[in-house]
Amino acid sequence: MPAVSDPVLPCPMEQGVRTLGELRAGRWADTAGRSVKDELRANLIVRLERGEPVFRGIVGYDDTVVPQVVNALLSRHNLILLGLRGQAKTKILRQLSELLDPLVPVLAGSELNDDPLAPVSVEGRTIVAERGDEAEIAWLPREARYVEKLATPDVTVADVIGDIDPIKASRLGTRLGDERSVHYGLLPRANRGIFAVNELPDLAGKVQVALFNVMQEGDVQIRGYPVRLPLDVLLVFSANPEDYTARGKIITPLKDRIGAEVRTHYPGAIEEGMRITAQEAWTMRDRGVSLPAWVAEAVEQVAFVAREDARVDKHSGVSQRLPISLLETVLSNAERRALGDSEGRGGSDGHATQVPLARVSDLYASLAAVTGKLELEYEGELKGAEAVARELVREAIGRTFATYGRELELDPIVDWFESERTLRLPDDVPPERWLLAMDEVPGLSEAAQRLSGASDAATRAAAGEFVLEGLYAQRRIGRSVERGFEAPDADPRSAVAGGRRWN
C-alpha cells in the first residue's frame, strides 16, 4: 500500500510565528474562517487527487463503506457508522484525524482551542481584546484534535458538555450564570477538531438532547442557564444497528441531525478475511511458526461458519477478533507442542531445534479463543459454548478441505477405512512416525505429498493429518480421541501418550 503523505498546506510555525500579529501577516490569514469540515474536505480532495488511500489497513470496504464515508466528508456531514462488533468502526473514525492539518494555531491559554482569528469563547475574545496583535499563539497537532468518548449509561451532560463550577465563579467574582463559570466537558474541548462517540445509543436521553442542540443550534442549557457554544467540530458516531432505531435507545431528533448513516459489514470473502487476520494478528514469534495455507484458511472459515450458524446470535455478530485471536492461539499451541513434544526436540538441553509447524488439529486445541467470542441463542446455550465451538471448527475444516482436496484421489483412503480398518496415531511422536503409519493407508501418503508439495517430514505429516481431519469433518470416516495407549517411541519422560483413532 502506498504511503499516505500530508497535504501541502501553509505551516507558519516553521517560520517562527508566535503572535497574532505575525499570524495575520502570514499566509495563514488566507484560511481565516475555514471550518474543520472545510479543512477535512480540502485535505481529502488532495489525497484523492494524488490517488492515495483514504484509510490505512481497511480491507474489503473499497467499494462499499469507504465511498460513503468520502461522500459524507465531501458533503461536510456529521456521520455515524452502523455495524456489528469487530467491523473496524473505531479504526475508521480514528483515522479521520489524519485528514486534519498537521498543525493549527490556537490562542495560548484558551480552553476551547480558539482560532486566533475568530475566537468563540469569552476567554478567547477577552485575550484578543486585551492583547491585540501581541496575543500569544500556540500550535495544536492533529492527534490532539481527536477526542473520543465511549458512551455508557452513566455519562452525564457535565461529562460531555460541561457544568457550572461554583469555585471558578467565586474565583472570578462572577455569577453562576456567567459563561466564564462553566467547566467545559469533552465536546467543547474538541472545538476545531473531531469528537467521536462510540456506542451512541448507550447515552442517556438528556445527553443526546444536549448533543443535538449543540449540533444544530449551537446552544445548550447547563444547570438551567443558557450557554451559547458555536463550536467548530465534526461529530462522528458508531452504533449497533439493533439499538439505532426508533424502538431502540436513540432519540429521533438526534438521528435526524446526523447527515450520513454508513453501514459497515464483515468480510464478504474468505480471502478478505484472511488478509485482515494476517494484518492484525501477532504472528512474529521469536523462533517463527510455519503456517500452512490450509490452516490459515481453516482459521478464517471458523468465523464465516459461526456467522451462518443458527445457534449464534445474529444481532451480536461474530467479531473479526475471533479469527485473529484463534490464529494467535493456534500459533501458540504449535509453539507449545514443539517446545514440549518430541516433534521439536533435538538438543541435549531439551530445547526445540525445529521451527514449529501449525497443524489443523491445533484449532481443536484453541477453542478457548472461540468460546468467549460467541453470543449463543437458546439452542446453543443448551448445547454449551465449547461443544458449539468444536462443531464450528469441524465444519470450518470440512469447508477448507473441500477446496484443497478437490484434486486429490480420496476414494482408496475412504475404502480402506470402510473395510473396518483402523489407524491409531499417538500425538507425542516425531513426524517420521506419522509418515510410517500413514503408509499403511493406500493413497494417504500420496495425497499428503501432493497437497503439501514439501520434502520435509513435518509438513507432509501435517498435510496427511489434514486429509484425515478433512475426511472426518466431511463425515466420510470416523475419528475419536483416545487417552492412555502406549506409544512405541514416545518421550521417555511419559509412559503413555494420547492420540487419535480414525476408522
Structural account:
With 503 residues, this protein is an alpha/beta fold. It has three domains: 12-263, Rossmann fold (3-Layer(aba) Sandwich), CATH 3.40.50; 266-404, no CATH class; 406-503, no CATH class. The chain is built from 20 helices and 14 strands. The chain has helices at residues 20-25, 36-49, 65-74, 89-95, 122-131, 157-160, 166-172, 186-189, 205-216, 252-257, 270-280, 293-308, 321-340, 368-371, 378-383, 385-404, 411-418, 431-438, 444-452, 457-473; strands spanning 79-82, 103-107, 137-141, 146-150, 162-164, 182-184, 193-198, 219-222, 225-228, 233-239, 260-263, 423-426, 479-485, 497-502. The strands form five sheets. It has a five-stranded parallel beta sheet with strand order 4-7-10-1-11. The radius of gyration is 30 Å and the shape is elongated. It starts with 19 loop residues before the first helix and ends with a strand. Mean pLDDT is 86; it is low at 1-5, 342-352 and 484-497.
List the helices and strands and how they pair.
Elements: H1 20-25, H2 36-49, H3 65-74, E1 79-82, H4 89-95, E2 103-107, H5 122-131, E3 137-141, E4 146-150, H6 157-160, E5 162-164, H7 166-172, E6 182-184, H8 186-189, E7 193-198, H9 205-216, E8 219-222, E9 225-228, E10 233-239, H10 252-257, E11 260-263, H11 270-280, H12 293-308, H13 321-340, H14 368-371, H15 378-383, H16 385-404, H17 411-418, E12 423-426, H18 431-438, H19 444-452, H20 457-473, E13 479-485, E14 497-502
Parallel strand pairs: 1-10, 1-11, 4-7, 7-10
Antiparallel strand pairs: 2-3, 5-6, 8-9, 12-14, 13-14
Helix pairs in contact: 11-12, 11-13, 12-13, 12-16, 16-20, 18-20, 19-20
